[in-house]
């Protein structure tokens, strides 16, 4: 600094000599020769190895971590001071003439410290592991001295978080100049801290287990201890998860993309993010496992309260039947909401919610004890009440956590069970239309396709259907072909009781039949607009000797047909062909059929299920 600010101006003004430029070049050559020789004597030939090569040879951990750390620390501290000095000195190369800067030996000073950095990271790792055990021992003393306090953490989690902060500070001071090398070392730091995080979580759980936590049926004496355990583990998980961000890994990767193949950089990014994600998930799973003990102890009572909701007299209100469950949950959750941090309260609520939904699903799917529609309506309202309870300000389990796949299934089944038979049959046909639409959009129609046109003539009160053709039908005969024909009928039958089924002629020996046949159905416009009206196409293979074979079926919603609710006056021949993917009823399990099957005293349900089961079995 003095040479730049004081000496160099004097020499340049008096004798026209670039003092700083000459001096720095002389010092650069001699100093780096001395340092390289000293490093070689201290660290051996490894100073010439790349970061990737260095980490190929994993040094065994010392049996005595503390002794290892102390023995290596003195030498490593001196090396670190030397590294920082050279790092600072290298910044002054900007005052050397630009044409000479690239040839300076100090440009590569960091390359000889790779093995030293590996040792620094090893020391940091081993000291961290040692401190985890030390801080946990210290925790035991502090907890026993302050058992009456209402702290949500013990000191160990704060101490370990501070260790992570110190590692971040070390990394920033290091300011490793080689971007790709820095990424390799950062990955190593991330892996080491991931292992330390896992160790802390394991030891915390072992402490809890040592007190017979998993063996007891009375958790009242363990509430605070359990809460401290999962709170501490969560704090360390959050500290670890933030570590790569604090280490500015993303900036490193972005900088690396300017000089190295993107595929290589993406692999490094994936390695870092995968390490963080896997460790974070492992720790989260451990927290859930500890909290699940709470649920195990209350699971039987939860089931009993749900049973009372399900079996309550029909005259009972939803509020009367569900309030005892809410009171029980309030009493059970009160001590945990006092001791647990918000994230762990949420996890506990998630586990309780999962048990309730599982039990509700069992009740809904239980075919051995069918219930009245009124009972299912009450259960549906109770489910809404449970959502409100878990989503209120006191608990606030977010609705996206509440509305899981299993919840949506329970909700759907309860709606089905609460629905009268005719409406349920309409819903069934809507499901079939949706299934067909998915097959159409994905172009995955293994059974082939049907092509038709449809038009409603309002003045004539006539629905015209033209069956044009089928393509790529599956062969049903031994000759590899089929003898197809198409049946068409308006469904559900209870909407159109006066309309008879019609069918095309049989086309022999083909998988791509051309029908070009037109059919008429006398319907009023009101009948066309009935909710749930469907044109049902059934493609069959005609067989003289045996029963006819089922090829596939398709559905067309009547209200969407041209001429209904619009003034399109084109002739049917001018309309665009409608393409319908053929489906089979047994490909997608229908919960509606299963529910209708339970309604053994309902003739409409029995007849409908019989016809659909016959189709499924073809």
Lateral strand order in the biggest sheet: 5-2-1-8
**Beta-strand residue fraction:** 5-15%
Mean pLDDT comes to 85
Major sheet description:
4 strands, antiparallel
Q: Which assembly state applies to the chains in this document? A: single chain
Distance between the termini: 92 Å
Level of helix content?
55-70%
Round the Cα radius of gyration to an integer and report it.
38 Å
The number of helical runs is 20
List keywords for this structure.
cytoplasm, 20 helices, 8 strands, 3 domains, single chain, 4-stranded antiparallel β-sheet, 618 residues, Immunoglobulin-like, alpha+beta, endosome, C2_dom, Methane Monooxygenase Hydroxylase, Chain G, domain 1, UNC-13_domain, elongated
Quick structural gist:
This protein is α+β, with helices and mostly antiparallel strands. Helices cover 59% and strands 10% of the residues. It has a four-stranded antiparallel β-sheet with strand order 5-2-1-8.
């Amino acid at each position: 600094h003095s040479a730049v600010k004081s000496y160099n101006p004097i020499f340049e003004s008096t004798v026209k000599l670039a003092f700083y430029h000459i001096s720095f070049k002389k010092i650069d050559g001699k100093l780096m020769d001395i340092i390289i020789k000293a490093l070689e004597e201290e660290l051996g030939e490894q100073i010439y190895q790349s970061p990737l090569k260095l980490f190929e040879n994993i040094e065994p951990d010392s049996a005595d971590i503390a002794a290892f750390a102390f023995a290596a620390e003195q030498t490593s501290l001196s090396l670190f001071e030397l590294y920082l000095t050279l790092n600072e000195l290298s910044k002054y190369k900007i005052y050397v003439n630009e044409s000479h800067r690239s040839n300076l030996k100090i440009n590569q000073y960091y390359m000889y410290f790779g093995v030293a950095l590996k040792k620094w990271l090893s020391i940091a790792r081993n000291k961290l592991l040692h401190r985890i055990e030390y801080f946990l021992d210290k925790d035991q003393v502090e907890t026993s001295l302050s058992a009456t306090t209402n702290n949500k953490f013990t000191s160990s989690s704060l101490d370990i978080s501070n260790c992570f902060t110190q590692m971040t500070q070390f990394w920033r001071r290091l300011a490793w100049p080689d971007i790709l090398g820095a990424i390799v070392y950062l990955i190593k730091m991330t892996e080491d801290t991931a292992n330390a995080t896992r160790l802390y979580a394991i030891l915390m759980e072992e402490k809890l287990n040592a007190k017979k936590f998993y063996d007891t049926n009375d958790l009242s004496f363990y509430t605070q201890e359990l809460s401290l355990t999962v709170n501490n583990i969560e704090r360390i998980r959050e500290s670890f998860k933030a570590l790569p961000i604090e280490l500015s890994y993303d900036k490193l990767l972005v900088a690396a993309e300017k000089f190295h193949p993107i595929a290589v950089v993406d692999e490094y990014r994936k390695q870092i993010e995968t390490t963080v994600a896997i460790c974070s998930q492992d720790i989260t799973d451990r927290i859930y496992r500890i909290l699940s003990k709470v649920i195990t102890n209350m699971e039987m009572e939860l089931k009993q309260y749900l049973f009372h909701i399900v079996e309550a007299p029909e005259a009972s209100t939803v509020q009367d039947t569900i309030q005892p469950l809410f009171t029980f949950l309030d009493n059970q959750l009160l001590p945990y909401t006092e001791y647990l941090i918000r994230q762990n309260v949420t996890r506990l609520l998630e586990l309780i919610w999962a048990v309730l939904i599982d039990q509700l699903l069992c009740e809904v799917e239980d075919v051995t004890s069918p219930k009245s529609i009124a009972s299912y309506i009450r259960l549906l309202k109770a489910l809404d009440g449970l959502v409100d309870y878990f989503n209120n300000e006191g608990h606030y389990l977010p609705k996206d956590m509440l509305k899981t796949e299993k919840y949506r299934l329970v909700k759907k089944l309860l709606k089905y069970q609460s629905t009268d038979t005719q409406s349920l049959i309409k819903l069934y046909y809507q499901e079939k239309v949706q299934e067909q639409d998915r097959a159409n959009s994905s172009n995955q129609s293994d059974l082939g396709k049907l092509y038709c046109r449809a038009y409603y003539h309002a003045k004539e009160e006539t629905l015209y259907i033209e069956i044009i053709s089928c393509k790529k039908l599956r062969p049903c005969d031994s000759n590899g072909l089929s003898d197809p024909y198409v049946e068409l009928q308006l469904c559900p039958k209870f909407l159109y009781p006066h309309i008879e089924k019609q069918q095309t002629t049989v086309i022999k020996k083909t998988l791509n039949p051309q029908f070009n046949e037109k059919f008429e159905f006398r319907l009023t416009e009101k009948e066309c607009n009935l909710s749930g009206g469907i044109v049902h196409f059934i493609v069959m293979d005609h067989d003289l000797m045996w029963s006819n074979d089922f090829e596939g079926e398709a559905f067309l919603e009547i209200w969407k047909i041209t001429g209904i609710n619009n003034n399109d006056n084109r002739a049917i021949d001018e309309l665009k062909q409608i393409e319908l993917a053929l489906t089979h009823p047994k490909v997608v399990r229908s919960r509606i059929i299963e529910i209708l099957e339970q309604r053994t005293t309902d003739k409409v349900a029995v007849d409908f299920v019989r016809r659909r089961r016959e189709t499924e079995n073809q």
